[in-house]
Amino acid sequence: MKVLPFVVAAAAVLLSACASTGNPADSANAGNAAIVSGNGASTAGGGGSSLNPAQPLPQVDAAGAEAAAYAGVNGKSVFFDFDQSAIKDEYKGVVEAHAAYLGKYKGHVLVQGNTDVRGSREYNLALGQRRAESVKQSLEVLGVKPDQVEAVSFGMEKPQASGNTDGDHAQNRRADFVYQ
């Protein structure tokens, strides 16, 4: 029976350690990034609360890390100039992000080349294939294994924009990444 008061006291200490102070200053500084030093201390831009060095930082499991990495590349396409298959400098970062994802998580991606509606069906299928192959080659140069990437063309068959303006055409001149 002498153990019971000790267990109750220990539970009370543990519960109080988890309680929030509700300090409005902490709420105001919640948007500031915390910088953790080597000893576990934390500083925030506006003098917010510090981390408890005895409490470990939350860990992300491998599936969570992969999901976060996928979210960073999902929906990112490479867009091309009219009648071109060369990757523009502004989209090289997109290709590099996909290469890093494929290098780390060993997935498989289908690169789909697309065109706008101008030109014949045959010409657009060939141009879409050149665009997909251009992206595939860039991924391989960045270290992605050739068996991880497949390049196909949809030509003008899968438009993102259905209009006929220059902006619509620009949205349709792209290579999409579809992970399998």
UniProtKB/TrEMBL annotation:
CDD domains: OmpA_C-like. It is a lipid-anchor. It is found in: Cell outer membrane. Coiled coil: none annotated. The keyword Cell cycle applies. Residues 158-180 are annotated as: Disordered. InterPro entries: Bact_OuterMem_StrucFunc, OMP_bac, OmpA-like, OMPA-like_CS, OmpA-like_sf, Pal. Pfam families: OmpA (PF00691). Residues 1-19 form the signal peptide. Belongs to the Pal lipoprotein family. HAMAP family: Pal. Part of the Tol-Pal system, which plays a role in outer membrane invagination during cell division and is important for maintaining outer membrane integrity. The Tol-Pal system is composed of five core proteins: the inner membrane proteins TolA, TolQ and TolR, the periplasmic protein TolB and the outer membrane protein Pal. They form a network linking the inner and outer membranes and the peptidoglycan layer. This is Peptidoglycan-associated lipoprotein. It comes from Vogesella aquatica.
